[in-house]
Amino acid sequence: MVVAASPSEPKLDLATAKILVVGEKASELDIVAQMLMGFGVSSIQRAPSSEEGVRAATRQRFDLALVESGTQAAGGYDFVEGVRRHDDPQYKYMPIILLCGHLRKSDFERARDCGASFLLTKPLSPQVLFDRIIWLARDKRRFVECSTYTGPDRRIKAYGPPAGMNGRRHDDLSGHVGEAKGENLSQDAVDDFFSPKKVAL
Amino acid sequence: MTQVKFIKPVNRLASRLGSTGLSRPSAIAQADTNIKSIRDDILAYIDSNIALLDVIVSRCNDGTAPALATLYEPSNAVAGTAGTAGLVPLGRAAYSLCQLLANGEQSGCYSLPAIKLHLDGMRLLRRFSSPDQDADAALILENLAKLIANVTS
User: ipTM of the assembly?
Assistant: First the structure.
């Protein structure tokens, strides 16, 4: 089915991309694989465990990996850490999307610290997965390597909540400015902002 | 002192973005079609996990924590897949059960009646397929949320 797109929208050519999907549940991997095939991917390799995933990811180069976080101790986090700890730079910097369902408090830190490029909460939708792949294709973050962490730089610049949405943090400001509550500044006061002067205190 | 290195690796996905390939609407439409083609398999997977939840709950009427902790995996499986099959309220109820179980794991105290009520709600929501039932589904979810608030307070 071909649907018209706006000319400014970029296209994604995944026809020759190699993608690795890692997870223990075949049914959940089927969902991911069907979405990827819809995006035009023809080469999808599956790994049923994090160990097998690391072996596959460090034997050949993949363009992207999608890994189920899982609920067991040795889940997808181990896969991400295993790839990021590998010596060979041609494998260790691969973009990795970590797929999570419900996260327990103990899982939050592992999800944050394992070095995944992006964390995506389930249920998955084609819209969200496609947008995240586009986001990763545009990702210009540096990788940070130190004794406790290897992965994309997690420090991000906060631009506030999207227009028309309320923020989730207590200190998020609304995009709506509203009516002025005081008198307008005089022109002199405005000029002072642009030409600060040295004052003796 | 911790040594930190900053590396700027080549983003191999970047070369896949351009003027050739699939547009967003085409890719999403095709992915939606593919998902619809395996919807029955996803539903079977959801049903098998709900059945597993039933079996585990029926075996642990004494409220033993180790047995109840094993409910987390199948409920997480339902939470993660029901929405993709169009059963969004069922996924939310399963997510609520995950939250209840995670709270129980943290406090070491599980509420078996609250778990059973969640399971009843999930069985009911699994049967909902018409938009006419949206209000009923919202009511079930609202009551499950109240239940969690009562159990954790």
Answer: 0.91
Q: What is B25-152's CATH number?
A: 1.20.120
What is the arithmetic mean of pLDDT over A112-133? 93
- Which domains are present in chain A? 2-152 (3.40.50.2300)
Range from A115-124, A183-192, B62-71, B124-133 carrying the lowest mean pLDDT: B62-71
Q: Does the distance separating the beta carbons of B84 and A1 come in below 8 Å?
A: no
CA distance B150 to B134: 24
* Sequence ranges of the domains in chain B: 25-152
Which of A24-28, A67-71, B111-115 bottoms out in mean pLDDT, i.e. has the lowest?
A: A67-71
∠ at Cα B120 (B116, B122), nearest 5°? 115
Confidence band, pLDDT 50/70/90 cuts, at residue B2: confident
Do the bridges between strand A150-152 and strand B5-7 make them parallel or antiparallel, or are there none, so unpaired? Answer: unpaired
State how far residue A1 is from chain B, nearest Cα, in angstroms. 7
Q: Do A101 and B76 touch (CB under 8 A)?
A: yes
Q: Where are the beta strands (DSSP E) in chain B?
A: 5-7, 17-18
Q: What number of other Cβ atoms are within 10 A of residue A91's Cβ?
A: 17
Phi, psi of B19 (to 5 degrees): -100, -5
